[in-house]
Automatic annotation (TrEMBL):
Belongs to the DEFL family. Keywords: Antimicrobial, Disulfide bond, Fungicide, Plant defense, Signal. Residues 1-25 form the signal peptide. The lineage of its organism: Eukaryota, Viridiplantae, Streptophyta, Embryophyta, Tracheophyta. GO terms for biological process: defense response to fungus; killing of cells of another organism. This is Uncharacterized protein.
């Protein structure tokens, strides 16, 4: 009975360890780029980010900086930066 329990725990640990590299690869590293935008509002900020970033990095959001009416913040996925 005890041997069966130990075997089950061992198998569970092996499965957990084998899935660890995949879990680590899925963690996203985020970057933020601050751009000057007079009288920032969300729609214009989003358009500015898309124009500025282009296809270089994966863009996933934008918003005006809190307390700074002239700053637009672009949020990017920098997990795998492009090779140059």
């Amino acid at each position: 009975m005890k041997a069966m329990r130990v075997a089950t725990i061992l198998i569970f640990c092996m499965i957990l360890l084998s899935s660890l590299p995949r879990m680590k690869a899925q963690q996203m590293k985020t970057c933020k780029i601050r751009l000057h935008l007079p009288n920032c509002y969300t729609g214009k900020c989003r358009d500015l980010c898309k124009d500025e970033i282009g296809g270089r990095l994966y863009y996933f959001g934008s918003d005006c900086a809190k307390g700074e009416p002239n700053i637009c913040v672009c949020k990017l996925d920098c997990t795998n930066p492009p090779q140059q």
